[in-house]
Design goal:
Layout (H helix, E strand, L loop, with lengths): L1 H23 L6 H24 L5 H25 L8 H28 L6 H36 L1 H6 L2 H29 L3 H31 L20 E4 L18 E4 L11 E4 L2 E4 L11 H9 L13 H23 L9 H13 L14 E6 L4 H12 L1 H6 E7 L5 H7 L3 E4 L5 H7 L5 E4 L9 H18 L4 E5 L4 H4 L8 H14 L4 E7 L1 E2 L2 H4 L6 E2 L5 E5 L6 E5 L1 H14 L8 E4 L2 E4 H12 L3 E5 L2 H6 L5 H14 L6 H11 L7 H7 L6
Helix pairs in contact: 1-2, 1-8, 2-3, 2-8, 3-4, 3-5, 3-8, 4-5, 5-7, 7-8, 12-20, 16-18, 21-25
Amino acid sequence: MTIAGFFAVACYNSIEILISLLNRFKRHDGLYFWSMLTATLGIVLHSLVVLLRYYSLGPNFLLSVLTCIGWYGMVTGQSVVLYSRLHLIVSDKTKTRWVLVMIITNFFILHVPVTVLFLGSNTKDSARFLLAFNIYERIQLAGFFLQESIISGLYIWETARGLKPIFAFKRAIERKVIRHLIIVNILVILLDITLLLTQYLSHFQIQTTYKPVVYSIKLKMEFIVLNKLLLVVKHGECSCMHAMSEPGAAAPRPSYIDSFDNRPFGQLPPSRESNDAIRLDHVSRTTTNASTRTDSRGPQTRRFSLFNLPDPYYTSLKGARDDWTTLAFAGSYTNDARQRWHQLRAILTQTTRICARFGQRSTRTPNKEASQENQEMKHLGWPPYLQETRVMSKILAVFGATGQQGSSVIDFVLNDTELSQQFELRAITRDVDSDKARQLKEKVQVVQGDVLNRASLSTALTGVHTVFAMTTPSFGPDALDIEYNNGKAIADVAVGQGVEYIIFSTLPAVRQMSDGRYTKVTPFDAKAKVEQYIRGLPLKSAFYCPGSFMENFQAQSFLAPRKASDGTWVLSRPSSPTAQLPLLSAVSDTGKFIGAILADPDKYQGKTFHGATALYTWEEVAAILSEATGKTIVYKEVPDDDFKKGLAFEPEMFSETFRFYEEFKYFGTDAEDMIAWAVKNARGRVSSFEEFLEAHPFQLE
């Protein structure tokens, strides 16, 4: 919703600016006109392409190229707009010349490297570019922030320093115009600061869609600033964007003001019309829906306020102030529109309550707020049964609900006295008609959700507060990209649906930890890449990094001990007997680690539980298996080539996996401390390998 709102506001502002440009400018061959037009079209292009990329509605590389083009126009075009008006207040041509040199230099220094890195990060070999891109993108945004701040700061300084005679002799309305010119430029700098903050706080999804909104607002302000400058120069009165003459008022003949005569502020331009002549329709009285009102005493101007800015800013800021969806809709906000907004708010409120009654959405509404909203419903004529406020538990959506991790989370929450009261479970699975899904339906709500179908994900995550997400491995040449895109789809839809907290099942970044020596362990690298993406999203998150599943000794029969000719059983790996491996019962203990996060989400926000009971050497694993089965099982280290010959499925991946285990202890060199911390903070005692085998007898065949 937020992304759609940002897109709507950016497009609304851009279309309004375009209409105003074509309507107000008599001739279309001046620097201000073309820079404003370029920046506006850049905003439109950037907004559309970001939306298309978000929904994967086109070739990724082509959309990436168009994103760069839109960014050029939006950012550099905005700076040229600022530059093109400097001559109105700065008489020193040296200053304006240096500003132009700065803009051109920064174009090559900041745009070109980021373009190369951005396009490179959207190719199959993205790993080589991503880190550098993430760093230089922040440098770029900071550079453009400084550039625009310097220009706006120069404007503020020259206005405050050079317009003292105007403050002394002009009328009150014109002094107010001058103050507003300064305020607008301060707002421009503040908007840039908010954009810089979203970038440096790694809110990727927000900042990519927030950029067009910021630049469209700034452009709209720039248009107002130019008209008001000309207004003061000519001693006339006009409303820069939405002026309408009162019925019956006689309007003077329109005048055409030369906005690009290279002349200091305060000197009237010659009578000739130049390239950027702007048509200003003078009216004796003007009214706008945000800034003035008219009564028997004539037009009166309200005190300047952020919440009295022209549309759609009033709607956007008012919605944020009321803690409702920011930028829910944009447009005129008259008295009639105000009533429609309250009705829409009432509809949204009652829709969530109706859904809650049928188990589709759960809410917690404070009594005071509920009472106030119920009074609103009564005032608007809602039936009594819709005025009821239900207080229900938060919805916890569990992906992979029929698998080992998901089923463990569901069983643990259902059997935990505290968590079962806090959360209402929603199991998400691709096939709701499978045997396991049917069994789940007896305990929890089961819904269909497929990572390849965003619509199904949106439905599945409607009204959800917390998500436990995981991805299943893919295999083949595009395995990493496929699994990453699946995890990204879940995260993106979660953000779009307003999910507050996500717990993601991740794994170590093998390629990064090994400095690129192990590149075939794609299930690990894909999950690690999804984790990094989620950390940059605008929602709270925690992570669960499970060790090697004890269940795999039985499930992956091709890796189980094999019977030798002498009657003994041999567990073979391309690792030394003393290499250590973290073991975990996925079914029994995953819920204990996830339960700890659910019980205290703020404490564990941004942290990772490295789920395992302990580190075991291969010799210890063989001895424990031998004790549990009563069979003689020994461990044997085999050459890597011999190990791969014995595997018919992904031999390179498994070979690199076990070599990585030996070198990095799976979690890293601090694996012992990581596991100890996780076991200490788990919500329950974690099973040892011996206890697991006792509960799940190991079968040798």
